[in-house]
Amino acid sequence: MCSPVVTSLAPLPPPPQPTTATTESLAPPAPTAPPLPFAYMGTFTPDGGTPVFFLTAGDRVFDVRIGETLDNLYSVDGLSNGQLQLTYKPLNIKQQLTVGGAP
What is the pLDDT, as a whole number, of residue 90? Predict the structure, then answer.
């Protein structure tokens, strides 16, 4: 007859505690506007007229004035300290494009 083999097993470790995620890590990141697709080419100000800003995006050239909209995506809001103020309309996020000195 064979004698039974008795082995003693060490107790299993306790299961890991569930981690609690903070609400900060669950919140999606705030949306951001894409980088401005425009580059500044120049400005023309007719005598006593409104300045016209010439911007490029790829192979396109835009001539815009303050108050106009570019490609239904960006509104041209103003000029301050050599920066053309634009708003990315889908997210209402303000952006700036350096245009040098004020015209």
Answer: 96
